[in-house]
Amino acid sequence: MGKKLQAPRGTYDVLPDDAVRRDHVEATARRILGAAGYRRIETPTFEATELFARGVGASTDIVQKEMYTFEDGGGRSVTLRPEGTAPVARAYLEHGMQKLPQPVKLWYLSSFYRYERAQAGRYRQFWQVGAEAIGSADPAVDAESILLLAELLESLGVRDVRLRLGSLGTPKTRAAYRELLQRYLRDHEDQLSEEVRARIDLNPLRAFDADHPGTKAVMEGAPRLLDHLSAEDLDHFAEVRALLDGADLAYEVDKTLVRGLDYYARTLFEFTSDALGAQSGVGGGGRYDGLIEQIGGPSTPGIGWAAGIERILLAAGEEPVPAPLLDLYVAYAAPEGRATGFELCWEARRAGLSAQFELAGRSLKGQLKQADRSGARFVAIVGPDGATLKDMETGEQDELEPGRVIPVVLKKGKTLA
Question: Which residues bind L-histidine (predicted)?
Answer without folding.
Answer: 83-85, 114, 128, 132, 259, 263-264
